[in-house]
Every structure is written in structure tokens, then in C-alpha cells.
From TrEMBL:
Keywords: Cytoplasm, Repressor, Translation regulation
Protein's name according to its UniProt entry: Ribosomal silencing factor RsfS
Record text on subunit structure and interactions: Interacts with ribosomal protein uL14 (rplN).
Any one cellular-component term (Gene Ontology): cytoplasm
Function, in words: Functions as a ribosomal silencing factor. Interacts with ribosomal protein uL14 (rplN), blocking formation of intersubunit bridge B8. Prevents association of the 30S and 50S ribosomal subunits and the formation of functional ribosomes, thus repressing translation.
Location, primary (coarse class): cytoplasm
One GO-annotated biological process of the protein: negative regulation of ribosome biogenesis
Origin superkingdom: Bacteria
HAMAP family in the record: Iojap_RsfS
Gene Ontology terms, MF aspect: ribosomal large subunit binding
Similarity comment text for this entry: Belongs to the Iojap/RsfS family.
Length: 105
């Protein structure tokens, strides 16, 4: 699963866990690390970690092995690296502070 299909799949899996404000950014012309960033919000530390864990587990079921996941213990901002796409699951406050949509949009 690559590119367009992967980004749509990941956004859908975040939505399964009631992630809010899901935004998909095409950063292929701005980054050599990934093609897409999916940014979404969870309403608590546990919710943020649960969204990221669900997305990672569902990706594995489809044969897409996560390259890494950081921040799940803290639960304020979890980054899930899936190669062609990265998923940023954030609580509202860090999301407002870092404004990834403006930085990469």
C-alpha cells in the first residue's frame, strides 16, 4: 500500500477512533522524508495514544510495518512513521502551538 491509498487508509483509521480535525497534507514537494502528513487531534493523553496504536495495528494488518512511533508514553503528541506517510496525533494545545498545517501547508 503506497501513496494515495496509504494516506486515505491512515486518515480513515484515525477517524475510526474518533480523531478530530483530520487534515491530510501533501508534502512531497517540501520533504525528502515523506510524501504525506496526516495531522489529527485527540482529546486526552490516552485518546492520542489509542489513536496512534490503532492506526499502527491496522497498518500492520495490511502489511505496512511502521518504521517508528514516538511519544506514545507522554500522549501529548505521537508521531507514527509509515514511510510514505507520517501520522501526527496531537492534543489540542500542542497542535495549536506548533501549527503543522501552516508550517507544511
Amino acid at each position: 500500500m503506497l501513496g494515495e491509498t496509504l494516506k486515505d487508509f491512515l486518515a480513515d483509521k484515525a477517524d475510526d477512533m474518533k480523531a478530530e480535525e483530520i487534515i491530510v497534507l501533501d508534502v512531497s514537494d517540501k520533504s525528502s522524508v515523506t510524501d504525506y502528513m496526516i495531522v489529527c487531534t485527540g482529546n486526552s493523553k490516552r485518546h492520542v495514544a489509542s489513536i496512534a496504536e490503532h492506526v499502527a495495528n491496522e497498518a500492520k494488518k495490511q502489511g505496512v510495518e511502521p518504521l517508528g512511533m514516538e511519544g506514545e508514553k507522554e500522549g501529548e503528541w505521537v508521531v507514527l512513521d509509515l514511510g510514505d506517510a507520517m501520522v501526527h496525533v496531537m492534543q489540542e494545545e500542542p497542535r495549536a502551538m506548533y501549527q503543522l498545517e501552516k508550517l507544511w501547508g
